[in-house]
Each structure stands twice: as structure tokens, then as C-alpha cells.
Predict the 3D structure of the following.
Amino acid sequence: MTLPDPSLGLTDQDLSLDDDTALTQAGCAATRDLVFVAAERLFAVHGFQKVSVRDITAEAKVNLASINYHFGSKDALLLEIFTRRTAELNRARAKMLHEANAAHAGKPPVRTILEALIAPPVRWMDPKGERLISVQFLIRARSEGTDQMRDILRTDVSHLRRFSDALLVACPRLTPEEVYWRLHFSLGLVHNNRFAEFDRLNTLSGGLTREDEVDVLIQRMVDFAEAGFLRP
């Protein structure tokens, strides 16, 4: 325990109360984190509708009332997971784009812009990585999300604006309409390429397309997207 400071008029009892408050706050934060992590994993694996509040608290080994106490409701918990993970992913993309701008005097080439757009989510998809559950949750959010989550997906384009702006500068020969369409198709490339689906591709190709290296996969995807932007 911290020693009392006579000049502040604090007693041992005062400091003991402060320590108890800090411990209580730390315990609340730990419980909140346990619920968050358990819910994200269950939602990602089993789907949003199939997971109950009781399932989450049993997985987290916390009191049944913890979700309402810390988050307000199951839907509010879903939204918090969604907003936190999308923010983390978009920060990773923005960091790469910022570095590309710095390296190219504010005018990065198409390929570098596309690498910043594509690489972070593909790295999250790596089965050997630590973010697979998070990206599985975000994939489910696109099809199973609440009305509020779908509204965010439909209307919050601020994180994409920096990419469209950069591509408009990098592709002056394309009309703005073409740039936006090609960005849209590039995003589809990311959304529809998942490691879990590559076994089917490997079967179709007779074993020619097995791809276990994330960096190689990213380069293949960027090659394809870049070709779309370089086409007249």
C-alpha cells in the first residue's frame, strides 16, 4: 500500500479505500474483456443468432448479468465488437497508406495504394495468425449484422475516402466514375477471398493453386487489382 502523506491530510484508511477502488475498477475491466473476447469468438464461429447471452457468460465464466451491466444488451455488445475491430483494421490500412504517401511525396502509385487497401485484411485472414477470429466476425457482420451495423457498413465511407482520393490522383486518365467502380471491385476481391475457400480452388486446379504464404497471396491479389486500374 502507498504510504500516507501527512501534508495532504490522508490517513491509512483513505489510501486503503483508494486501493480498493482501483482493484474494483481493474476487476470490472477484466470481466468486460473476458465477455468481449468470449462473445467475439462465439459469434464468429456459430453466428450472431445462435449465440445466447447465457452462452457468452458461460464461455467467459462470469455472472449472467455481466453483459447487461458492462454493455447494456447483446446487440450493444455486438456493435462494440464490430466498431472496435473495424477501427483497428482501418487504422492498419490508414497507416500503410500514410507511409506510402510519405515515401512518394504525397502521390503514391496505384500498386502501393492497393497494397495498403488489401494487405491488412488478408493478413488478418491468415489461419496461422492471431486475428482470424476477428476477421471471421467481420465477415459475419456483413450478412448477419444488426440494422445499426448494416447502416454503418452502408453509410460510413470515411475510411475508404482516403483510398478513392489517392486513386483519383494516381489515375488521372480514368474518369472518377471508373475509379469508384474499380475500387468497388477491388474491395470485392478482398471480401470474397478467404483461406477456407482455397481448398475448393486447389481441387479445381488439380493441386496447382495451393497457397500457404500470405505475402505471396497478397501479391497475387494486388497484381489482379492493379491490372484492373491500369486497363484503359
Notes: The chain has two domains: 9-72, 79-232. The chain has a mean pLDDT of 88. Residues 79-232 form a domain with the Tetracycline Repressor; domain 2 fold (CATH 1.10.357.10).
